[in-house]
From TrEMBL:
Listed PANTHER family: 3-OXOACYL-[ACYL-CARRIER-PROTEIN] REDUCTASE, CHLOROPLASTIC, SHORT-CHAIN DEHYDROGENASES/REDUCTASES FAMILY MEMBER
Protein family (similarity comment): Belongs to the short-chain dehydrogenases/reductases (SDR) family.
Protein name (record): SDR family oxidoreductase
Name of a matching Pfam family: adh_short_C2
InterPro entries named in the record: NAD(P)-bd_dom_sf, SDR_fam
Length: 258
């Protein structure tokens, strides 16, 4: 039996699915015929990003900082579809940046928004997956959850400096993924993590000098395009990935190799 990448009839939930990378992930899932629910707080942003109304695309309000909101979103989608196949934990929230001047409250807020929110969504999806006997969770980490920043890149552009709680929390996402992969394997639930490398936003890309420095850190001498990242989410959402769990797939142009 050949296991397919086709996602027809699969219900995929994507938190933060209208952001810089989220949009490309959603577009690729739709191309492969998944029914996609974008979970977020701002329906207007969703409408702006997905101007064309598509039959297999839905918006569901969900604030990942609010447990009741997460529970309600999952419950409403399950009641509508009678199944949940894949949860992609892409959303995060944070504040503060300075490695020396960040206060305790901002540090803890960033940990909660980057790691705690994924824990919350993971915990709340488990009862649905156990009930139906299958499910996949795909978390999103960062290359700075694997390696420390090269601070020389940011000497002339301190506004883009990666904050200390971000990398710490993203490293936690990788370990949390392994933990739940181990815990949920016996229930036929796969948990994996995707770790993006340099995928700066369109606004940041206007700074060509900074983009050159990022590009030179990769082995392919360029930054990532959102579509470079999307395919791995299709693969991990598909039946072809049924025997893959607890893995960290790094999509970084080779940044973390050296």
């Amino acid at each position: 039996m050949v296991k397919s990448f086709n996602l027809k009839n699969k219900v995929v939930l994507v938190t933060g699915g209208y952001g810089h990378l989220g949009k490309a992930i959603v577009d690729s899932l739709l191309y492969h015929e998944a029914k996609v629910y974008v979970l977020g707080r701002d329906k207007e942003k969703f409408i702006q990003k997905f101007k064309e109304k598509l039959e297999n695309l839905r918006f569901t309000y969900c604030d990942v900082s609010d447990l009741d909101s997460v529970k309600k979103a999952f419950s409403n989608i399950y009641q509508s579809e009678a199944r949940l196949d894949v949860l992609i934990n892409n959303a995060f929230y944070s504040r503060g940046q300075s490695p020396e001047e960040m206060n305790d409250e901002d540090f803890l807020y960033g940990l909660e928004g980057t790691l705690g929110s994924i824990f919350k969504c993971t915990r709340e999806i488990i009862p649905y997956f156990k009930k139906q006997g299958f499910g996949k969770i795909i978390n999103v980490s960062s290359m700075y959850g694997v390696v420390a920043p090269d601070f020389r890149i940011y000497d002339e552009t301190p506004a883009y400096l990666n904050p200390p709680h971000y990398g710490a929390a993203k490293a936690g996402v990788i370990q949390l993924t392994k933990y739940y992969a181990s815990y949920l394997g016996k229930y036929n639930i796969q948990v994996n993590v995707v770790t993006p490398g340099p995928f700066p936003s369109e606004n940041v890309q206007k700074d060509t000098s900074f983009i050159k420095k990022l590009s030179e850190k990769t082995l392919v001498n360029r930054i990532g395009k959102p579509e470079d990242l999307a395919g791995v989410f299709v693969f991990l959402s598909s039946d072809a990935a049924d025997f893959i769990t607890g893995q960290n797939i790094i999509v970084d142009g080779g940044w973390t190799v050296r």
